[in-house]
Specification:
- The chain is mainly beta.
- Helices cover 1% and strands 42% of the residues.
- It has one helix and 61 strands.
- The strands form 16 sheets. The protein has a five-stranded mixed sheet with strand order 28-32-31-30-29, with no helix packed on it. The protein has a four-stranded antiparallel sheet with strand order 1-61-60-59, with no helix packed on it. Strands 2-3-4-5 form a four-stranded antiparallel sheet, with no helix packed on it.
- It starts with 18 loop residues before the first strand and ends in a 19-residue tail after the last strand.
Length: 745
């Protein structure tokens, strides 16, 4: 294991040679799975729409995207290069995860793709698809054409069988509740395999061709369930619940249950090897020993008779056998918590991967040692990603006095800094109050004073997504402005006159005196603030803004000094003309007074305004669709040549648009980004648009042109790190084949 991170795998390059920058990890990961053919090949998914594949034991990962959150993986038992992944649809790769194609529903049967909710999630509407949306799937270990899948159609769950590797399906039986997983006994008769379908309240089992329920122990609701098979032991089931650990050695007919590590212990994920059920791993926390509360992973090698704490850490105590990288170094061992999900190799019960709220870890020696696979240390520098990135980033910032100093404002991991041009990264949060440190939304350097920079930070992440204010009053939001005088290495709060609030944007007036900088801040729920003394003190400036608790999101300044503020939408449905509408306001007197600017017809969610530096009346507006219609109504790109008095549609192919950016080298060049898997570029002020090959992450935030190379861009994302690559990539197939489903994309 000492050689674990020496030589990363070289994957086929993307068009434009796009790669992902950052320290790696940073968000929740799920569904790890190891190839039954090659112990070096594994798959992982995240809840932010990314999928990841490694072919070198976790030294490096390739991110791919199937236009939705991945719910499960499977491997072909014969062809080692054939992989399956399930969103609401079923996808297949026949080249080790480099490219993917739709298996079911059939592309030719698709009527439409509904994509109208806040995250632009996609529902494929197809003729002849009684299966509905895929929930989980298993492939017979000895027959690559035999699959069993669970689907949900009109809120009804059912089990389906394919004898053609997913090309057609026949219904097996209805299910009474949502399934967790499917396990096929490879030792059962080939013509009528025994099938085990797990759920919250037990198992549905087909044995000798007959279906029967095997319930969980009385009053028990499972957290996680895993099943393995052997000639000696038969079907062995391990399950966790708030009541403890439950083990069945007869396929779920009877159970042995109990608290595994004392009354305070809590168990989360559990996993066994499909072919070696005597070995299992369970994720635990709150195990009280020696006046500490321990968390980690326990292992059994004797069907659960005895357990060993092979991963044992506490809040301020790192396990000597836990070889983590930057997250433990920066946040401590408990930041990622005990594993959310685990898997064990079919062929080797000593090989296991675990995932948590920030990391993917692995062991190849039965838990004697655990290694981080999401990040690695750069020699004589800081940390760099292995390609497994789950961070949400808002912009990419360059120190105007040091070309090698770069910053990425993030959710959850806060602000990170590179001193070597993006090669390696470290946190840059020293001095930011703990209650604000979760998210940095924006930062701006003083163009005339070396080392001076302002940042807006908050405990509230992922704004303006509705999940953050749906159940939490904005009056409880925390955050503020921080100032650095040493180039972002250390910070001090600079919040006098501003209440605790979720600050999301900071804008500097470049015409103001360096001795008395004028700054503006947008805050979700409290509006706009202005400082005339370099951020020492702030005054609210909301006169004319009519929204109650205004969701001030972004500020823009024209060359003539005109200010604009975007008020984010508060409603989530398809309604318009209500108090939940977003808005656009203008000020011509330094934010002393604001006047409403009419939005384009049907639009109630502006997201970004850009202004042509040559013409203050030429405005570009990115907007977010309402939850109405098939694709979402009222979204797209618009432009105005009269300062917002009238608007014209510029592009509506994508309608969930987060940002529009102007290239500072050439204002005729525009970039548009959003939650529909594309980055768009126009070289003629928006008259024509072309999709940039090489970028296909589902949820893009914004483009920042590379100041060192006019042919390259940085793309920040919601859950996929920062992508860096060329606009001139060859237009060849990407990770996912989309032409039939999504013409022109």
């Amino acid at each position: 294991m000492l050689l674990l991170f020496l030589v990363p795998m070289l994957y086929a390059s993307r068009p434009g040679d796009f790669n992902v920058l950052g320290p790696g990890g940073g968000g929740a990961m799920f569904h790890p799975m190891i190839s039954p053919h090659d112990p070096n090949t594994a798959l992982v998914a995240c809840d932010m729409s990314g999928g990841y594949v490694t072919h070198d034991g976790g030294k490096s990962w390739r991110m791919f995207n199937l236009r939705g959150v991945i719910n499960f993986f499977a491997f072909d038992p014969v062809n080692s290069k054939t992989l399956y992944a399930g969103t609401r649809a079923l996808w297949r790769s026949t080249d080790d995860g480099e490219t993917w194609n739709l298996v079911w529903p059939k592309a030719e049967s698709i009527r439409e793709i509904e994509m109208n909710n806040d995250h632009a999630e996609e529902w494929i509407k197809a003729d002849g698809n009684a299966l509905g949306a895929f929930v989980t799937l298993a492939v017979d270990q000895k027959d690559p054409k035999l699959m069993v899948a669970a689907g949900v159609n009109q809120k009804q769950f059912a089990l389906w069988l394919s004898r053609s590797a997913g090309e057609s399906w026949e219904k097996l039986t209805d299910l009474q509740e949502a399934p967790r997983g499917i396990f096929i006994d490879p030792g059962s008769p080939k013509g009528k395999r025994d099938i085990y379908v797990t759920s919250d309240h037990g198992l549905m089992v087909r044995h000798e061709g007959k279906w029967q329920p095997h319930g969980a122990p009385k009053d028990v609701v499972f957290n996680d369930v895993s099943v393995g098979f052997s000639t000696a032991s038969g079907a062995v089931v391990y399950a966790t619940s708030p009541a403890g650990l439950h083990i069945s050695r007869d396929g779920g007919l009877t159970w042995a249950s109990g608290k595994l590590f004392g009354d305070t212990s809590e168990l989360r994920a559990v996993a066994t090897s499909l072919n070696h059920p005597e070995v299992a791993y369970v994720s635990y926390k709150n195990v009280k020993q020696n006046d500490k509360s321990w968390f980690g992973v326990a292992r059994t090698g004797d069907l659960g008779s005895t357990w060993q704490l092979v991963w044992k850490e506490a809040e301020h105590t790192t396990g000597a056998n836990i070889h983590d990288t930057w997250l433990t170094h920066e946040f401590g061992p408990d930041w990622g918590e005990n594993p959310l999900a685990m898997t064990v190799a079919d062929q080797d019960p000593n090989l296991s991967y675990t995932t948590d709220f920030g990391r993917t870890m692995m062991t190849s020696d039965g838990g004697k040692n655990w290694y981080a696979t999401y990040s690695q240390r750069v020699p004589e520098a800081n940390w760099t990603s292995t390609g497994l990135d789950v961070t949400s980033s808002y912009t990419y910032v360059f120190d105007p006095f040091d070309a090698k100093r770069h910053f990425i404002p993030n959710t959850d991991i806060g602000l990170i800094r590179s001193e070597d041009g993006g090669r390696s990264w470290t946190r840059s949060a020293k001095g930011i109050p703990d209650r604000w440190v979760n998210t940095t939304y924006w930062m701006v350097f003083d163009p005339a004073v070396k080392g001076r920079v302002w940042a807006v930070t908050s405990s509230v992440h992922d704004l303006p997504r509705p999940k953050m204010w749906r159940r939490t009053p904005v009056s409880s939001f925390q955050g503020g402005v921080c100032l650095s005088n040493d180039g972002g290495r250390t910070w001090i709060p600079s919040n006098k006159g501003m209440p605790e609030t979720a600050t999301t944007h900071v804008l500097l007036d470049p015409t103001s005196s360096p001795e008395h900088r004028v700054l503006y801040v947008a805050a979700m729920g409290t509006g706009v603030y202005k400082s005339t003394d370099g951020g020492v003190s702030w005054v609210a400036k909301n006169k004319g803004i009519t929204q109650k608790e205004p969701f001030a999101w972004r500020l823009t300044r024209a060359e003539d000094g005109t200010l604009y503020v975007i008020i984010a939408r508060r409603s989530e449905d398809g309604s318009i003309g209500t108090s939940g509408d977003g808005a656009l306001y203008r000020s011509t007197d330094g934010a002393e007074n604001w006047t409403s600017v009419s939005l384009p017809q049907g639009v109630n969610a502006p997201t970004t305004l850009a202004i042509d530096p040559r013409d203050p009346k030429r405005l570009y507006l990115a907007t977010w669709a309402r939850s109405a219609g098939v694709h979402g109504d009222g979204g797209g790109l618009f432009f105005s040549t009269d300062g917002g008095k009238s608007w014209n549609v510029m592009m509506d192919r994508d309608r969930h648009l987060y940002d529009i950016a102007i290239d500072p080298r050439n204002p005729d060049v525009l970039y548009a980004t959003g939650f529909e898997s594309s980055v768009w570029r126009s070289a003629d002020k928006g008259a024509r648009w072309a999709r940039i090959p090489g970028f296909n992450f589902k949820w893009a935030h914004r483009v920042i042109p590379d100041p060192q190379d006019a042919s390259k861009i940085y793309v920040t994302t919601f859950g996929g790190g920062v992508w860096h690559g060329s606009i001139d990539g060859e237009d060849k197939p990407l990770d996912i084949a989309t032409p039939v489903m999504f013409p022109g994309k």
